[in-house]
UniProtKB/TrEMBL annotation:
Pfam families for this protein: GerE, Response_reg
Modification type 4-aspartylphosphate: residues: 58
Residue ranges constituting the HTH luxR-type domain according to the UniProt record: 147-212
Cross-referenced SUPFAM superfamilies: C-terminal effector domain of the bipartite response regulators, CheY-like
Keywords per UniProt: DNA-binding, Phosphoprotein, Transcription, Transcription regulation
InterPro entries noted in UniProt: CheY-like_superfamily, NreC/VraR/RcsB-like_REC, Sig_transdc_resp-reg_C-effctor, Sig_transdc_resp-reg_receiver, Tscrpt_reg_LuxR_C, WalR-like
CDD domains assigned to the protein according to its UniProt record, in alphabetical order: LuxR_C_like, REC_NarL-like
Protein name per its UniProtKB record: Response regulator transcription factor
Record bears the keyword Oxidoreductase: no
Residue span, Response regulatory domain: 7-126
Amino acid sequence: MSDADISILLVDDHPLVRDGLRARLEAAPRLRVVGEAGSAEEALEQAGLLQPDLVLMDVNMRGGSNTSGIEATARLLERYPDIAVLMLSMHDRPEYVTQAIQAGARGYVLKDAPGKDIVLAIDTVMGGGIYYSAALARQLASPPAASTGVGEGLTAREQEILRFIAAGQSNKGIARELDLSVRTVETHRLNIKRKLGIEGQAELIRYAIQHAGL
């Protein structure tokens, strides 16, 4: 991550929430709020005008056309694929996370998360990673009670690693959790991609989110 400022567009249909987020973010070095929007239509307009580095998008935000934040994310990224989107929500329902990632979001943060977590999420996303609030990460990393067909053809260890990938863990994080070397985790990831016919990192993350019991 470079030391350059990160420009942010805030999208939430509650002005008081936007005010609180702006205060949190502008207290952090390098974060610069360049605009706000209260609807999907306004978000698309402001994103085109301002070209921010990142959009902090409310999941349940509604616009004049009854467009949710997840739908707005898909539309925004179709027009401006270089802008990163980080979802913000009061809800920790896994299906929302799945839909957000499918729409192209790079992370999902709960509104009641500490300010430092939101800053960490922004830094992680702008560094090319995927970020989930801690409570969500624990849910996503836990094996579902009765999941089947998760990564058919993968070994038990590879399926375990797939769940950690879904939870946004880095190779170092997975290695630490499973008491493996980073090189071993990297090898497992390569084997997973080869077996599933997946090439890119983003495609692997989407597959993990969609199939890790969510």
